[in-house]
Amino acid sequence: MKNRLKVLRAERDWTQADLANALQVSRQTINAIEKGKFDPSLPLAFKAARLFNLKIEEIFEDETEN
Amino acid sequence: MKNRLKVLRAERDWTQADLANALQVSRQTINAIEKGKFDPSLPLAFKAARLFNLKIEEIFEDETEN
DNA sequence: ACATTATGTAAAGATAGTTTTATATTTTTG
DNA sequence: CAAAAATATAAAACTATCTTTACATAATGT
After folding, report:
1. What is the 3-state secondary structure (H, E, C) of chain A?
2. How does pLDDT run across A18-56, given as a tens digit for each residue?
3. Which CATH class is domain A2-55?
4. What is the CATH number of domain B2-53?
5. Which of A16, A28, B19, B62 sees the fewest Cβ atoms within 10 Å?
6. Is A42's CB within 8 Å of B46's CB?
7. Structure pTM?
8. Measured CA A16 to C1' C18 distance, in angstroms
9. How many CA atoms lie within 13 A of B6 on its CB side?
């Protein structure tokens, strides 16, 4: 699962810790998601979408076929 | 997390088993998601959105505050 | 160059999503 | 009404997400 979190952070000059804070998850969770270690839960994806005023599809890109 | 899976199935006259099959998960997973027992993973939400040609937000509705 | 801040990584443990198998209940159909 | 199909539910096991703690490396600012 690709995502634009790093870019969205950069546009706002936010650190991973800032974003983690805004989404109320740990910094490591943000780092792991940005690095593609695992996918965010659906509720977390919704929270991120709300935070950035974007659709989930505008932040996360699914790479699985079908 | 509310969702419109039951309605979307009904519109197509699909059973839970049919949908499970289309999404390649078990029938119990569909049932549990429809009944709100747990949230689908983000990849599964993407799969459902692709299947129905809808945005994730048009199928699932997050209820958490913030 | 040094100090500070940000990012990457890892292990252990908790919680949530998913499968499999099995059974019970409800709905649909003949 | 009886049979069949669909839905609900449950337990055990497995995998994935997420937290906490801790440390290492990279980037930034003075």
Report:
1. CEECHHHHHHHHCCCHHHHHHHHCCCHHHHHHHHCCCCCCEHHHHHHHHHHHCCCHHHHEECCCCC
2. 999 999 999 999 999 999 999 999 999 999 999 999 999
3. mainly alpha
4. 1.10.260.40
5. A28
6. no
7. 0.94
8. 30
9. 8
